[in-house]
Amino acid sequence: MTASAPQASQIPGPRRVLVVGGGGRENSLAWALARCPGVERVWVAPGNGGTAALAGCETLAIAESDSEGLLKACRSREVDLVVVGPEAPLAAGLADRLRAAGLPVFGPGADGARLEASKQWAKTLMREAGIPTAGFWPATSREQALAALEAQGRPLVVKADGLAAGKGVTVAETMAEARAAIEEIFAGRFGESQGASLVLEERTEGPEVSVFALTDGQRMVLLPPAQDHKRIGEGDTGPNTGGMGAYAPAPLLDADGLAAVRRLVLEPTLAALQARSIDYRGVIYAGLMLTADGPSVIEFNCRFGDPECETLMPLLGPELATVLLACANGRLDRAPTLSIAAGCSACVIAAAEGYPGEIRRGDVVEGDLATGDSLQLFHAGTRRAEDGRCVTAGGRVLAVVAQADDFDTAFERAYRGLERVRFNGMTLRRDIGHQVRTR
Fold it and tell me: What is the rounded distance in angstroms from the CA atom of residue 299 to the CA atom of residue 265?
């Protein structure tokens, strides 16, 4: 499978790359970029406990929110591509600051990051552009939200409007549950959302799938579709998490289905951004529900999904660094074709005890996982302790990813890999990929 981009006089790739962020997504991005021909060095800021173990990578102790510190590091190291992983620095304008200093940045400015940073803004854009999505009712006060809920007379999906670190969404089963979710949001439970506003949304039915488009603001390249597992419990039960595992390419979307998503969702989205004078350079992540009437957008994100990113990176070809630089420079028309490996990829997350609630921290991560072309270990919530040992530092701690010709073999490899690493309280699901596994 290949993701095609128009061919012309091709541009050279980057030599020195900075990846901003410290999770599993950034760990996998750094790993993939360091493997690209011509890339001499990759820095990750702030990185995590596993960054330095990646060949060709180095950790920089600079917070993702420290735009001036990041700019200084880019200048002193002659960085020629910045890839911003998380949504918070994008929404805060990090890409704008670095671009203003003349740096090529893969990641949208603060205006484009509103696709994720404001659900009201994104839903309004979709409605105006005719992009399929569920009906919705915005509310800027508790009283307005409760009145809208009562007017509908049925449980609705309740979403905090702003960034909520992957939380802030309740798919209510009852009216009481919907009312409680509204109260939680306006009590300011979800950080940056601060209880200022929310969106009530119709419930839709169907399987979910994630589609990523790499764009230079005018053109785009689509990656293979992926499907993740949000619930903490086996059988897709229990509370929602940031994702307990994923697989790609998801057979829910064949070539025709992916082309329909491009035509119905992604191209109109890019056109709507252009109509608003937004030069969007980075990833457009479309979280979709495949309803009986076709694909419907659940949400947009302005960055790679996690753990879909860890799942996809091993499938992407050596042209990746050049393609991302071409997007950053607005010249995807001069990028090489991004090759996609045959076969499939499977990812399983090892989480800390208590996740997605109150978690344990500081447990030593032990084990020896030999990685290679078909098995990878990506660190997420880890850090280096003063004695040099790697310890747990977040909810999702490790991602073990494997590739094979079929999903059964890929998941067998991933689960065998997980047996080689351990930490106290390690939590995982044994049924990741149940939709595509036969044994």
Answer: 11
Q: What pLDDT does 1 receive?
A: 46
Residue identified by tokens 């050049």 is 322
- CA dihedral of 325, 327, 328, 329, whole degrees rounded to 10: 90
Length of the chain: 439
- Is residue 397 a contact partner of residue 352, using CB atoms and an 8 Å limit? yes
Spatial contact of 19 and 89, defined as CB atoms under 8 Å apart: no
Strands (E), 242-333: 245-248, 282-291, 294-301
State the pairing for strand pair 245-248/227-228.
Answer: antiparallel
Domains and CATH numbers, the chain: 13-107 (3.40.50.20), 135-201 (3.30.1490.20)
Tokens of 139: 């509310």
**C-alpha dihedral over 194, 198, 203, 209, to 10 degrees?**
-60
Q: What are phi and psi of 300, to 5 degrees?
A: -110, 145
Reduced to 3 states (helix: H, G, I; strand: E, B; else coil), residue 293 is: coil
Q: Write down the pLDDT at residue 170.
A: 83
CA 306 to CA 38: how far, in whole Å?
A: 27
Of the candidates 10, 40, 411, the residue with the CA atom closest to the CA atom of residue 229? 411
Residue 338: φ, ψ to 5°: -80, 110
Q: From CA 44, how far away is CA 31, in angstroms rounded?
A: 10
Listed as ranges, residues in the chain with pLDDT below 70 are: 1-9, 164-167, 190-195
Using CA of residue 44, residue 49, residue 55, residue 59, what is the dihedral sign?
A: positive
**Under DSSP, is residue 170 helix (H, G, I), strand (E, B) or coil?**
strand
Report the sign of the C-alpha dihedral through residues 56, 39, 328, 316, in that order: negative
